[in-house]
Amino acid sequence: MLSVYEGFFCGGARILHSDVVLGLREGGQQHRVLSVHREVYREAARQRMEDDTCYRTLTAAGVSVTSLGRTFDTGGMGPAAFTGRELADTARAMAGADVVLSLKEQPLALLSQPGLPRRPVVVCLHRSDPHNQPRALEDLKSAIAAGTVVACVCCAESTRAAYENAGIPPALLHDIPNGVDLARFRPDAAGRLALRTCLGITPPAPVVVFAARYDGMKNVPLFLRAARAWLAGVPDSHVLMCGAGMTPANPGLDADITAAFGHHRGDLSSRLHLLGVRRDMETVYAAADVVALTSSWGEAAPLCLIEGMMCGAVPVATDVGDSAAIVRGSGIVTPPDPQAIAGAWTTATAARDTLTPALTASRERFSRTRMTASYAALLDQVAAAADRPVRSQPLGR
After folding, report:
1. Is this prediction's pTM over 0.70?
2. Count of CB atoms within 10 A of residue 173's CB?
3. What crossing angle do the helices spanning 12-26 and 368-387 adopt, rounded to 10°?
4. How far is residue 172's CA from residue 156's CA, in Å, rounded to a whole number?
């Protein structure tokens, strides 16, 4: 199997897909990864492939990761024109694969180039708004029409519905809900205390974590307005912000904080912790009482909600993608209003002990083992179909 990434930069889809690759490899399938870009500038930060956590995890596990060596400064695949060397490198990577996995639609601009080895491509879809990236959607439709793409994995019901409504044949859409490593993402009392002590947070203080990259779809300004209301109304509360771009060095985030907090910024900023990219998210989630999501569009099955829930944090989310279904019975869905969100955080922290049994009962539903087995079954099916001889068709009269 060959997985093709647009690039290695922080985001839930890359974390999820890399975990799938590792799980499939553990199950006996041979995998390698090809990244179109070696360096990407996103979320106000230059992100090198070699510095990425997913890259390091894959290579440490023995997965071969190569790159076409491209650099891109605004996200996306960039120009569709590929050099002869890039196509030759891609052809060599594809030649040894029975099936190619495309992490979202962006790599299809490469995989649809003429002259590459004919291999069945499975596209892993992680959005609920395909029309927001019209070029990617058109690339997907073209690759399906050409017979290059033979199946699409939908990580959420909202993903299936959105792509079906966008004109993708329903027979190609396969539902495989997201899952996480339950041995890693679990309540951790010692880790909770250690991180809180490191950040100067007392054990009983209520804590909200926001794990997201700095991107418009995440609606960071809405989150910050809710954080301002909550910090002002709950004097001992704290807010943790994690992810690419969630650092004081990001001028966009700094401006958002100033706009949301106004003249209260000086009073409240000591309880707003900008942690950036973390390699110990399981500990960050365990230290929190609430995991928050304020996205406006694009989400399918947000990984932060699942990971946070598995660590014992109560999910509070806006109604986007499958968020409402994910938190049902274990958390709260809110309108996109800062006061309502802040109030929901207070309700959630008070109800955390009451909701713990529901959070515990949901663990099997979000199992990485279940997810990996579903991916393996689909890939085996696609590989077997590709090996079947093509039946001769009678000539028309």
Report:
1. yes
2. 17
3. 70
4. 15
SS (H, E, C) 75-94: CCCCCCCCCHHHHHHHHHHH
Answer yes or no: same fold for 2-179+367-387 and 189-364: yes
How far apart, in whole angstroms, are the C-alpha atoms of residue 366 and residue 307?
Answer: 9
pLDDT, tens only, 293-322:
999 999 999 999 999 999 999 999 999 999
**Could you tell me the fold of the domain covering 2-179+367-387?**
Rossmann fold (3.40.50)
Domain edges within the chain: 2-179+367-387, 189-364
pLDDT tens per residue across span 183-206? 999 999 999 999 999 999 999 999
Other CB atoms within 10 A of residue 271 CB: 21
Report the distance separating Cα 137 and Cα 328, nearest Å.
31
Of 147, 128, 32, give the one whose Cα is nearest residue 382. Answer: 147
CATH superfamily entry for domain 189-364: Glycogen Phosphorylase B; (3.40.50.2000)
